[in-house]
């Protein structure tokens, strides 16, 4: 396996999606779907295969592409589209001309509702596609059980009905049809039924599910358990029924979809090609910024490049904002509905591509990754220099008892645990977070100055404006204000406060800068609370023995070595204690625990 393939395998996401294997000439070898892309793709390279065809396939793989989707069902549909489009050599299934089933409401007077695998553009409505024929049949059974519809293919124009051309059939006598062919049912009544059926096919069938549940209970009450089980299966299928697919949409014809994700150095443009409502191609282009180009300029450049490379003939483009790419294209900026979902799918793939590139850089060039993170933090936090050395402070106490504080140190965005420090609060009485923070910050940087140790570029205070103001007093006293950047982070909404600014900064919840700040804060809290617990536990453990007159620390240690806990010492007999510490001290300890 090549180094490039190994790198791709390490950075593939764990989401549902479709993967494509290519040979060294760029020819597609195989298309597959997965609930977890990383696990599925890795399995090809991590185990010995029994079939010779699979062994040959794995040897030929030179590169891997993937498309991330929302659900496993979407992955199944996308796999079907791509296999039929490209006919990969190593795919056996799905290469025929069969497609997944749809439910059609025919464009005619008194519309029929039926299952089909062919879409005809005659104005009919199509719902689906469905990955399970069982689901289609259950839906049609549900519809037929609730609404009597015609199944004949007669032309039920008003003139022919008036002339008495048709006669009602057996379906009418069985109660499955209300006889529109002989004018026994009006067009208005029939259209009302069709409107209700549309809601069911869109997934709005709460009333229908309730009817099924009542049927199931009635069958169970009558000891008709087989019938109850059949109805139960229908309920389960309907509850799991997915009404919408982003991958296949008959309302959208030939369209090219573009989205962009960018940072300081690169733009990542994802392209989805839709043909007859189905996604048939996905490609992400990475463009390096040279002159600080805007997203609009990068997207226009990418659209031209991708159209030349793939020679698409689509005349409509879905884009996130207005672009200028000539008069030959219709530009659509989706705001909601099916079109917006497709644009969101494209943006999701651009984001995942960017994340994978970052992971690959982190593995192959850690220094470059660190520089990028530092540059991003400098920009996000509005600092004058990159925060390669960051220190974070947190206080811990319970109702003012055993107050302690912690200082954690990060170098180049990673914990430097050997430089972590604990502090016992010395000058503050009672639960005073502000005064405790002032003392700790002062002691920390007074010592660094005395020892001529390097100062951090950024100080992070776990707390809001109060703790930040207290810390500033210490920096003022040491003459460090303005020489070290300092911020406070409040826990509730992750608000970041700056000195002298009452309005907090809110970072993107997914930004790497916020994740590092949160990691700092969590480390400081963990380190501080661990020290606090240990101190409290030690005090609680020894306090009951320490109050006994004539019992010193050495005696307490000997007793704990033997009995392991204060409780066992209190339950021990006089003879057992005497064997460890002698008669005189044993009597004092025994009397302390057994006095009335």
From TrEMBL:
Pfam families: GIY-YIG (PF01541), HHH_5 (PF14520), UvrC_RNaseH (PF22920), UvrC_RNaseH_dom (PF08459). It is found in: Cytoplasm. GO terms for cellular component: cytoplasm; excinuclease repair complex. Coiled coil: none annotated. Signal peptide: none annotated. It comes from the Bacteria. GO terms for molecular function: DNA binding; excinuclease ABC activity. Residues 271-475 form the UvrC family homology region profile domain. SUPFAM superfamilies: C-terminal UvrC-binding domain of UvrB, GIY-YIG endonuclease, RuvA domain 2-like. Residues 14-92 form the GIY-YIG domain. GO terms for biological process: nucleotide-excision repair; SOS response. The keyword DNA damage applies. SMART domains: GIYc. Keywords: Cytoplasm, DNA damage, DNA excision, DNA repair, Excision nuclease, SOS response. The keyword Cytoplasm applies. PROSITE patterns: GIY_YIG, UVRC. The UvrABC repair system catalyzes the recognition and processing of DNA lesions. UvrC both incises the 5' and 3' sides of the lesion. The N-terminal half is responsible for the 3' incision and the C-terminal half is responsible for the 5' incision. Interacts with UvrB in an incision complex. Belongs to the UvrC family. PANTHER family: UVRABC SYSTEM PROTEIN C (PTHR30562:SF1), UVRC/OXIDOREDUCTASE (PTHR30562). This is UvrABC system protein C.
């Amino acid at each position: 396996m090549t180094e490039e393939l190994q790198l791709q395998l390490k950075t593939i996401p764990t989401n549902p999606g479709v993967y494509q294997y290519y040979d060294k000439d760029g020819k597609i070898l195989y298309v597959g779907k997965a609930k977890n892309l990383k696990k599925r793709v890795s399995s090809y390279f991590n185990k010995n295969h029994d079939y010779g065809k699979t062994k040959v396939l794995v040897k030929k793989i030179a590169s891997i592409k993937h498309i991330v989707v929302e659900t496993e069902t979407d992955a199944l549909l996308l796999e079907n589209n791509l296999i039929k489009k490209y006919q990969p050599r190593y795919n056996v299934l799905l290469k025929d001309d069969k497609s997944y089933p749809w439910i059609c409401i025919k464009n005619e007077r008194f519309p029929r509702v039926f299952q089909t695998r062919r879409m005809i553009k005659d104005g009919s409505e199509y719902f689906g596609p469905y990955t399970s024929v069982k689901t289609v049949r259950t839906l049609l059974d549900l519809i037929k059980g609730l609404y009597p519809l015609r199944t004949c293919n007669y032309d039920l124009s008003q003139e022919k009905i008036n002339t008495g051309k048709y006669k009602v059939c057996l379906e009418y006598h069985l109660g499955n049809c209300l006889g529109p062919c002989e004018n026994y049912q009006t067009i208005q009544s029939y259209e009302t039924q069709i409107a209700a059926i549309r809601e069911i096919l869109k997934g709005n069938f709460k009333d229908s599910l309730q009817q099924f549940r009542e049927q199931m209970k009635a069958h169970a009450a009558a000891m008709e358990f087989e019938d109850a089980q059949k109805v139960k299966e229908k309920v389960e299928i309907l509850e799991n029924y997915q009404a919408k697919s982003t991958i296949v949409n008959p309302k959208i014809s030939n369209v090219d979809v573009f989205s962009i994700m960018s940072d300081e150095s690169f733009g990542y443009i994802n392209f989805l090609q839709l043909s007859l409502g189905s996604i048939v191609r996905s490609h992400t282009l990475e463009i390096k910024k040279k002159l600080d180009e805007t997203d609009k300029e990068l997207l226009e450049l990418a659209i031209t490049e991708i159209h030349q490379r793939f020679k698409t003939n689509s005349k409509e483009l879905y884009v996130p904002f207005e672009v200028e790419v000539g008069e030959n294209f219709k530009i659509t900026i989706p705001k909601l509905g099916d079109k917006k979902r497709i644009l969101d799918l494209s943006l999701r793939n651009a984001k995942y591509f960017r994340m994978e590139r970052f992971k690959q850089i982190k593995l192959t060039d850690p220094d470059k990754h660190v520089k990028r993170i530092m540059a991003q933090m400098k920009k996000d936090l509005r600092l004058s220099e990159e925060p390669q050395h960051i220190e974070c402070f947190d206080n811990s106490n319970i109702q003012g008892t055993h107050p302690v504080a912690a200082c954690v140190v990060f170098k180049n965005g990673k914990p430097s645990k050997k430089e972590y420090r604990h502090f016992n609060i010395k000058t503050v009485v009672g639960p005073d977070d502000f005064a405790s923070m002032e003392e700790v910050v002062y002691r920390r940087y007074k010592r660094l100055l005395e020892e001529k140790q390097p100062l951090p570029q950024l100080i992070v205070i776990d707390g809001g404006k109060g703790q930040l103001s207290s810390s500033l007093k210490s920096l003022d006293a040491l003459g460090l204000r303005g020489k070290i950047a300092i911020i406070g982070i409040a826990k509730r909404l992750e608000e970041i406060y700056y000195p002298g600014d009452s309005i907090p900064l809110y970072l993107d919840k997914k930004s790497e800068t916020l994740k590092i700040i949160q990691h700092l804060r969590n480390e400081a809290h963990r380190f501080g609370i661990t020290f606090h617990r240990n101190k409290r536990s030690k005090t609680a453990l020894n306090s009951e023995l320490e109050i006994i007159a004539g019992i010193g620390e050495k005696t307490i240690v000997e007793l704990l070595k033997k009995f392991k806990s204060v409780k066992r010492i209190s339950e021990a007999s006089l003879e057992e204690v005497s064997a460890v510490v002698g008669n005189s001290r044993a009597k004092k300890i025994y009397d302390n625990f057994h006095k009335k």
